[in-house]
Amino acid sequence: MQPPAGSQVSRVPAQRTPSEQLPPAPPTPAPQPRRRRLRTVLTVVGGVLALLLAGGVVTGFVLYNRAAAPDRSAPDVVVVNYLQAALVSRDPNRAKLFTCDGSVPALDEFNAQAVRREQELGVSFSINIEGVSVTKINSSSASVVAVIRRSASVDGIQQSLADAWQFDVQDRDGWRVCTGTKVR
Fold this sequence. Notes:
About 40% of the residues lie in helices and about 25% in strands. The chain is an alpha+beta fold and about 180 residues long. The chain has a four-stranded antiparallel sheet, covered by helices on one side. The mean pLDDT is about 85.
């Protein structure tokens, strides 16, 4: 029973048992290192993956540039690449990558004649570049001779024509074909 409000009754504090008689306190729980460890592992794995991805992108870019860049490393190489682009692939934009001024008029006319002849005969020529040799060379210019062979089967008979060409090339940030003339 409780004393009435405002009375002067003294209250006796509850008696406590001596601390020796108390059961031992439960041990404090150890901190949770798993979350911190997991976060660290995920951060390291994420960083490694980001570095691998960045390395892959850079490697891909370098390899693509090497594959896509025209090879103008030597006079004979640039002539073969130019003839492949102009006559075999018939890609004038790619052919311009190997020239000094965008086109070689004599070879453009040769190619136009070949196309007209294919249409007249109703065949498709197979073009081969043969016997490529550098005849004169100095540090910034050279002369290259090449044989252009056109082959086709006309009325069941295999036929072939070969024309020798001379190309003058110059080293302008890589070798480039500047002129071309039919030799024979």
